[in-house]
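FORM 12-B: Structure-to-Sequence Request
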């Protein structure tokens, strides 16, 4: 497939389109990953909390693809924040994945009430220096959390992975990322399927001879977001990555722009975690 790559702030390149495995049961993960890799996906997004890192590793090995052609992200579990814990937790991930190194390691949630993410980040900086991961980043960080990292540590996160879809367009955070060299990763890019009957999207789908899911994913790509939609259904896995041979017009993009409602499907990062 013709998936573009985005250069992160430390020079590492990430495929802009990948496969997310949140809520795929451990026993079905290897097969889903294999299907995605056969369909041309080369970027996999998992997490310690998803409980399926071993299935991701099995799927990679079953595919027979060389390790260097793949980009693998995992995320630190919320109960393992802290400098030493963050380091030990990545060792566990590498064992479950059967890999010597991941491509990207993320702090999953800032958990501001625990106030451990700055110490955690210093552990991430060590892991980067040790080559256990090729890049480090964060997830669900608000501007205030990014500002604290910038003030108290020396490494700008390569990415911030945030909830982002037409109903939650995150204009302010995206602008902050742009001016600070942080790539935007969009989680729940399809709002978990909630939006796909919206008439604006179904009309655009009709106009382009595509599905509403493809229109939304194409919107993300043209905005510059990194996306990794999740599906267990082989036809949808193939449908989702098939968005690199059509383009939305400026008017199409503006119509989707009007769907922004500040609507979260997931937790609020400022309050999640107590
Ligand atoms: P998503 O927006 O990718 O939606 C997935 C759901 O949409 C599927 O379960 C299915 O019901 C539907 N769907 C998928 N393809 C479709 C298609 N072609 N047509 C119709 N319906 C379709 O939601 P997600 O799984 O929450 O997010 C994607 C990935 O983002 C996750 O797998 C995970 O890797 C990541 N994520 C990260 C966080 C975080 O806190 N960092 C939180 C949630 C998700």
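FORM 12-B RESPONSE
SEQUENCE OUT:
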């Amino acid at each position: 497939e013709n998936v573009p790559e985005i250069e992160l702030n430390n020079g590492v390149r990430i495929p802009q389109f990948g496969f997310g495995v949140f809520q795929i049961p451990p026993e079905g993960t290897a097969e889903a990953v294999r299907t995605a890799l056969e369909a041309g996906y080369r970027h996999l997004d998992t997490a310690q909390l998803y409980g399926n890192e071993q299935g991701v590793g099995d799927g990679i090995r079953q595919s027979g693809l060389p390790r260097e052609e793949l980009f693998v992200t995992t995320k630190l579990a919320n109960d393992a924040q802290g400098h030493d814990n963050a380091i030990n937790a990545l060792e566990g991930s590498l064992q479950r994945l059967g890999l010597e190194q991941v491509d990207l390691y993320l702090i999953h949630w800032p958990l501001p009430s625990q106030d451990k993410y700055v110490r955690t980040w210093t552990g991430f900086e060590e892991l980067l220096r040790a080559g256990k991961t090729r890049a480090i980043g964060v997830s669900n960080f608000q501007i205030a959390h990014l500002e604290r990292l910038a003030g108290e540590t020396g490494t700008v996160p390569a990415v911030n992975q945030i909830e982002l879809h037409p109903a939650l367009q995150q204009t302010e955070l995206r602008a902050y990322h742009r001016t600070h060299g942080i790539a935007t990763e969009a989680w729940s890019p399809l709002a978990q399927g909630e939006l796909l009957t919206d008439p604006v999207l179904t009309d655009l789908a009709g106009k382009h001879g595509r599905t509403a899911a493809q229109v939304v994913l194409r919107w993300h790509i043209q905005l510059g977001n990194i996306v990794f939609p999740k599906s267990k259904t082989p036809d949808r896995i193939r449908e989702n990555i098939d968005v690199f041979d059509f383009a939305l017009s400026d008017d199409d993009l503006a119509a989707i722009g009007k769907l922004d409602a500040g609507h979260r499907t997931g937790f609020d990062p400022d309050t999640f975690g107590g």
